[in-house]
Amino acid sequence: MPVLNKKKSKGLYIVIFGCGRLGSGIANWLSSKGNSVVVVDRREEAFSSLSFEFTGFTIIGDATELDTLETAKVEKADVVLALTPDDNTNIMTALISKEYFEVPRVIARVYDPNNIDMFSEFGVEIICPTLLAVKEIQNTLGFIGGDEG
Amino acid sequence: MKVFLIGGRNIAYHLARRLLNKGYQVVLVNKDEKLNEGLAKRLKKAIIITGDGSKRHVLEQLEITSKDLFVALTPNDQDNLVASLIAKRVFGIENPLALINDPDNEAAFKKLGIGTTVSPTNILAQAIEERIFKEQITNLIPSFEQIAVFQIEMEEQSPAVGKRVMELAIPRESVIGAIIRAGEAIIPRGDTIIKSGDKLIVLSKPTVQSSVFESLLGEV
Amino acid sequence: MAKIYVIDDESSIRRLIKMIMEEQKHEVTTFATAEEGLKVIEKEPPDLLFTDLGLPEMNGLELIKIVEERLYSFPIVVVSEITIAEAIIEAFKHGICDFITKPFTPTEIIESFEKCYMSTDTLLKKKKEVISFVEAGKNLQASKLVSRLFANFPNSPVPHYLFALLAFSWNKELAKRHLKAALALDPDYKEARELLIKIDSGDEN
Lengths: 149, 220, 205
What we know:
Protein name (chain A): TrkA family potassium uptake protein
Pfam families (chain A): TrkA_N
CATH architecture of the largest domain in chain B: 3-Layer(aba) Sandwich
Organism (chain A): Kosmotoga arenicorallina
Largest interface: A-C, 24 and 25 residues
Number of strands of chain B: 11
Strand content of chain A: 15-25%
Order of helices and strands of chain A: EHEEHEHEHEH
Oligomer: heterotrimer
Order of helices and strands of chain B: EHEHEHEHEHEHEEEEEH
Structural class of chain A: alpha/beta
Radius of gyration of chain A: 18 Å
CATH topology of chain A: Rossmann fold
Domain RCK N-terminal (chain A): 11-131
Helix content of chain B: 25-40%
CATH superfamily of chain A: NAD(P)-binding Rossmann-like Domain
Shape of chain B: elongated
Shape of chain A: globular
CATH class of chain A: Alpha Beta
Helix content of chain A: 25-40%
CATH superfamily of the largest domain in chain B: NAD(P)-binding Rossmann-like Domain
Keywords (chain A): Ion transport, Potassium, Potassium transport, Transport
CATH class of the largest domain in chain B: Alpha Beta
Strand content of chain B: 15-25%
Distance between the termini of chain B: 49 Å
Number of domains of chain A: 1
Strand order of the largest sheet of chain B: 3-2-1-4-5-6
Number of helices of chain B: 7
Radius of gyration of chain B: 23 Å
CATH topology of the largest domain in chain B: Rossmann fold
Largest sheet of chain B: 6 strands, parallel
CATH architecture of chain A: 3-Layer(aba) Sandwich
């Protein structure tokens, strides 16, 4: 029997939950870089934010339903991004992707800084816009007060 | 020892009432201020807190200890998950209980350490199935655990009658453990023939129980 | 390097599969409808076809049946949103090699290609095709197909045997050499051995 080398694609399989401004922006970018991208959102209208050149898949579904994650084939994902407007939804999707589906890299957007530590323990990477904004503002304001920072 | 009920509306109310009657100390946490006003009037002995029970800073004000009971009852699985995880990891409560609306989430919650879940959908689904075959099926162990045990009564026209046990088209995840015939218990072998009037004691995984009913009793 | 055709009415899917397979150094041509694809298949069949089932006008299943009827030997991989068992079974009944559901990962596409392109089934179909060309006297088509087989199945004895069949009528020495090569790759290759015996015994048939 003839044998061919097992060639891996350099394109990743990425599932994004939430097609808002952030989700659609990331989806467009990742897709343009040659990755296979799946975008999931509860509302069909959300997909209109995707660019014309978007070469991926769209799924209408609820990120809190296991069935939706299975339809999106999360178990085959290289990266999952949980970017819905709701913190708890993002946390749940991220945790299930990481622990249950064993996705190698999982990133969640969480607005409430109080939730960060606990979920980082699971190995989920958290992006907290609130904290990022605080840091940016601190940088902009520069050194204020007696703090050696 | 206190019982913390997070979210929920009617369920929280009725559960609280029952627990208070049994003498438990009950704390209800709910985002809905109006609802809480109503609850406070009807549940005089309970402590009612307005706030999001899935937020750590809210729960931290409640003096929760690891010996307390914690039940997440919101209509949203994601909120129940986060609340339960905080209860477990921050306050050391070993077995927080979470309501899950999507029964498929049960396995995922377990994987995350929330092993005690209640799925109303599953309970109702089971009850509905039992109604369909009501007369012939008795659920011997009413539970939503990993195994279902039923007594199924064979009638003249049941498709299984006249067949040998090994010929029955029941799923792999099921077995006929015993047959009660004329008051005697028979432990069946592959060549045991099913007779009308037999009461089959069947063990099966809940996921295949409707296939079992169909094979033994026929299409509804 | 294989010649791959893709038929799907969604441009993003066509582009995605094209991107994945071109990265694997294959030649990919895409079509938005079954009719367009069929026209080109008739002129020049591919080494493998990826097709959707839900297409405007002629749908994927009809296309698959036509390919089956006309005894084309290239494998077909269906890429579709459909998850209904009956539809999938129906497609397999008409000879497809694999079925991938959307959304799909690049790995799924690549693995499916490798499984089907190199499958024993495909090789057998191609063997039949060559033999039918030879019997019909279409030696040019037969030899074209055999050269592709040499390129695509380098370690298989079958192209050597088929070449020997071709060469049999005009150069028995060449035929013998290839038969010996076939037997070197697979000592139990019955047909090759029989043909070799035939040549050695001076049988002119």
